[in-house]
Amino acid sequence: MRRAAGIDVGGTTIKGLRLDASGRRFPGPVPVPTPTDEAALVDAVAALARELGEPRVGVCVAGIVDETRGVALSGSNLPWRDSPLRERLSDAIGAPVALGHDVRCGARAEARWGGHGGVRFLYVNLGTGVSAVTVTDGEPASGPWHGEIGQPLVPDPADPTSLVSIERLASAEAVTRRYADRSGGLPSAGADVVFGRLAQGDPVAAAVVNEAVSALAQCLAFTVAATAPEVIVLAGGMAQAGSALVEPLSGRLESLLGILPRPRLVVSRLGPDAEAMGAAALALSAD
Amino acid sequence: MRRAAGIDVGGTTIKGLRLDASGRRFPGPVPVPTPTDEAALVDAVAALARELGEPRVGVCVAGIVDETRGVALSGSNLPWRDSPLRERLSDAIGAPVALGHDVRCGARAEARWGGHGGVRFLYVNLGTGVSAVTVTDGEPASGPWHGEIGQPLVPDPADPTSLVSIERLASAEAVTRRYADRSGGLPSAGADVVFGRLAQGDPVAAAVVNEAVSALAQCLAFTVAATAPEVIVLAGGMAQAGSALVEPLSGRLESLLGILPRPRLVVSRLGPDAEAMGAAALALSAD
């Protein structure tokens, strides 16, 4: 059966896997740290591609990506601006490369192997950032700026005179940082640690999660109104919190939707591999 | 040249026009009041269709409409629920009828004759309600609940302990009613009168318009983030306010978009005929 390598270039690590056309995945090597220089990053991806040893390679990156032209317009934590990344990666690897946006790739994988094939769904990534992709008939909406729902500004609940983006309240990274800021320390903890503290009754964790849930509910209410999904699939680091996130978010969202039909809120079944799987799927469908 | 009748069934009046395939419009008779009973309403539309005397008839209605099945699911001010309206109108008129959603029809007309053909735009109707349609490659997004951006609830600026829908703050009807409530009277005035008072320095008019603009800006910031339009076209009664609406709204929206690209904000050039024109266009493209 045809197989492809899928490589997910994140803000902190680069990870890869092999995928066959049925959606079966084969683990790749241990993830490597993401270099902060573009040339070094291209070399690291090429080395990983060689190690995975598949003739087809799909790569997905964070930030703003024009998938049609194969250009990485900008990456919040990644070192490029208007970079012809598809061409650079193809040159370094010595073979054609499919380049995708990480969240759109996750949505692609979710559409094929997540059990939502026939349904119009919103794939919401809660990781370093917050963004969403509408998937209709298995196809994620296209366009580089589409679904950047973490970018609008709202009053900061900790200081209502200043504005803050949804992403800086409700991403996994924001929850981690806001908890560390207020509890005085815990710099290396992830959102899972904050949800762990919440379960133990920590009031700072409860306040931070509550602010994240409120911001997300507000943002999702408008996104649901604009795009009418039947299902919302939560993915990315914070989705690992499961019902500790889904239950309050679902209640809050419900209270803001007025007469609109309620979408079902679920956590992605594919877990942290979804984006690399979607990148491999891009490569598989390229020939 | 082929022509069609376009009939726009609004919450208060039913109006019709004739349209040829080039987009040239020919005025119809004086609008008639919208009956509150469905059978009487169907009769009134059929009488208007006979008067317009074209072999092709397109009808658009407000509320939630399933255009594919020709069913009016609900109409906030209109007397149906899950009504097979396309079939009822065809029976009454004695010819096939194209049935559309009023705002999607307005968006269709705007795509063809508004000068935004090649551009991805958001068509925002500010009339009895608030709703929006994303138009890509000339095609409005489909689905009955798509674009109901006026439905999410936000804290009421006049009483922050209670929630109110965007529509009840920012529709032409809401602006009119909220002004009347606070100024003690003026029940029959429209949003244009409120904007007239605003121009004369009326502080109640200024407060009501300011609350409407804030609510709209918030709602549009999230809709822009989700759907990435290049242009926002304002239509419906309140769009007639022109720069008195566009300037503050554009400034407020700008302040909430963070790093997102700014869409251009314009007023529809087609005016109040847009929806009937789009209904006629549906009929023209049906054969």
Distance between the termini of chain A: 14 Å
Using a beta-carbon cutoff below 8 angstroms, give the protein chain pair with the largest interface and the number of residues from each chain: A-B, 35 and 35 residues
CATH superfamily assignment of the largest domain in chain A? Answer: ATPase, nucleotide binding domain
CATH architecture of the largest domain in chain A: 2-Layer Sandwich
Which overall shape of chain A is indicated by the principal axes computed on the Cα atoms? globular
- Please summarize the sheet with the most strands of chain A: 6 strands, mixed
This entry's quaternary arrangement is homodimer
Counting helices, strands and paired strands, the structural category of chain A is alpha/beta
CATH topology of the largest domain in chain A: Nucleotidyltransferase, domain 5
Whole-number tally of structural domains of chain A: 2
Question: Low-confidence parts of chain A lasting 5 or more residues at pLDDT below 50?
Answer: none
- For the record, what CATH class of the largest domain in chain A applies? Alpha Beta
Please compute the radius of gyration of chain A using only Cα atoms. Answer: 19 Å
Tell me the number of helical segments of chain A per DSSP (H or I, 4 or more residues long): 9
The residue-averaged pLDDT of chain A reads: 93
Portion in strands of chain A:
25-35%
Count every beta strand of chain A, where a strand is a DSSP E run of 2 or more residues.
16
InterPro entries (chains A, B): ATPase_NBD, ROK
Protein name (chains A, B): ROK family protein
Pfam families (chains A, B): ROK
Family (chains A, B): Belongs to the ROK (NagC/XylR) family.
